[in-house]
Amino acid sequence: MSNVRIEKMKESDLEEVAKIFCTVFNEEGENWTEESSKSHVVQNYFGEAHFVAKENNNIIGMVMGIPLTREAGTEIFIDSLVVLKEYRGKGIGKKLFNKIVEYAKKEKYKGVRFLANPEFNSFKWYKKMKYKESGWVELFKEIE
Question: InterPro entries this protein is in (predicted)?
């Protein structure tokens, strides 16, 4: 995997990123369509803290970070981090995480935060990467 590059996401990457987003989250039991994935990616694309992993110019993973102001200062909120199944276990997710942390340090952010589902396979990996549960619980109410 030495030929994997991590680079800033460009607007021209959005369609391919949306397909990967849809594929990966649907593997975890979610119900995204290519259309809803594209809408999500486009709505959350600010370019600042968004990176893709590429092998031979093909996108194989991505991370989307959004600046978030909190009481302790501004943090990067990771909206999504995905790696195609066939590339997992090869350090690509770690490279993407490291890239966003490097970016956050350079830009003087206070930290990196994200939501994770404990039932997803990735949850154990986040703990292995030394991310800690914050104690906050996500709440949701469906609008009827």
Answer: AcTrfase_GNAT_prd, Acyl_CoA_acyltransferase, GNAT_dom, MshD_Acetyltransferase
The helix (H) or strand (E) run that includes residue 66 is strand 58-70
CB 60 within 8 A of CB 4: yes
Sequence-distant (6+) residues with CB within 8 A of 139 are none
Per residue, what are the HEC states of 71-117? CCEEEEEEEEEEECHHHCCCCHHHHHHHHHHHHHHHCCCCCEEECCC
The tokens for 96 are 């993407």
Over the stretch 85-128, which tens digit does the pLDDT of each residue have?
999 899 999 999 999 999 999 999 998 888 887 887 778 888 88
In a domain, 72, yes or no: yes
Sign of the torsion formed by the C-alpha atoms of 116, 118, 120 and 124: positive
> Is 91 a member of any domain?
yes
Tell me the residue range of the domain where 81 lies. Answer: 4-8+48-128
- pLDDT tens digits along 27-79: 877 788 888 778 877 777 766 789 999 999 999 999 989 888 877 678 998 88
Q: What is the CATH number of the domain that holds 61?
A: 3.40.630.30
